[in-house]
Amino acid sequence: MAQAEIKDRLDVSVVVPLYNEEESLGELVAWIDRVAKASNLTYEVIMIDDGSSDDSWAVVEQLSQKYPSIHGIRFARNYGKSAALYCGFEAAQGEVVFTMDADLQDSPDEIPEMRRMIIEDGYDMVSGWKKKRYDPAGKRLPSKFFNWTARFVSGIKLHDFNCGLKAYRRKVVKSIEVYGEMHRYIPILAKHAGFKRIGEKVVKHQERKYGVSKFGMERMVKGYLDLITVSFMSHFGRSPMYFFGSLGTIMFLVGGGTAIWIILAKIYKQMHGMYLRAVTDQPLFFIAILAIILGVQLFLAGFLGELINRRAADRNSYKIDKRF
């Protein structure tokens, strides 16, 4: 990379997804600007309007006239937070990239210290932990269970996967793809991409000042489905046969072994004149046949997955960190 490009790179990019947050945007930008100037940081704020139905976009345009560091992206309709983050990451040019919600519940005062943890302590990513939250109990309790599950499945020791305030080394956001509802699992995506130095910082959580939360309870259902997806893709995305083939083989062997045992037991009883039941009268026999059929289907699913994977354009696409 050219020396001029390194020198001209911004210190911080702040990616702000927003949906119907017109009241809070002015305060948020002024707060970020104040913190950046106090810390002598060059910065940009990338505001992604996710199809707002209020005057949020008009406010973004007005702010861009007052603050040259403001950049805006507007979606034609509501695509969701992951889509907004994806576009924001793509546009970000800062050495350290922050994500922050637009509702003023995330404090820009955390930016200097989280940036220091990336630059000086060597973390690839620092996630905020809202240790003291001002959300209602109906939101806090499911969140705790959700975070426990994510920790257990991923092995990443974070208390708050879903905190909107996070800091990333620039190459992290350029190496991951956020889609669907995967914004909750960016730490897992980062770990899968080879960025394993993931830290955590207790951050101040503000009470919501304007409007209402845009997320309902359905996000919990989507969250767990996405957790299964990202976990599977992390472990078996390039080798689906390891999962489906192994599971299918086990089911086939268990079902086949059970069926053979039932048949041999009948033959033995016939030879010794013992009381016996017809094989087709035994429920276990049909369970064994079902296990055989499912085992074959799972094995074929893994085989087809391998065939599709072999023809994928990025099958040998690997992220190389260094070369000499």
Written description of the protein model:
- The protein has eleven helices and seven strands.
- With 324 residues, the chain is an alpha/beta fold.
- The radius of gyration is 26 Å and the shape is elongated.
- Helix content is 50%, strand content 11%.
- It folds into two domains: 3-235, Alpha-Beta Complex (Spore Coat Polysaccharide Biosynthesis Protein SpsA, Chain A); 240-310.
- It has a seven-stranded mixed β-sheet with strand order 3-2-1-4-6-5-7, with helices on both faces.
- Helix 2 links the parallel strand 1 (12-18) and strand 2.
- Helix 6 (137-154) packs parallel to helix 9 (218-236).
Helices, by number, come to 11
Per CATH, the superfamily of the largest domain is: Spore Coat Polysaccharide Biosynthesis Protein SpsA, Chain A
Mean pLDDT, all residues: 83
Structural class: alpha/beta
| Domain count | 2
CATH fold category name of the largest domain? Spore Coat Polysaccharide Biosynthesis Protein SpsA, Chain A
Following the backbone from N to C, one meets helices and strands in this order, namely HEHEHEHEHEHEHHEHHH
Task: Supply Rg.
Answer: 26 Å
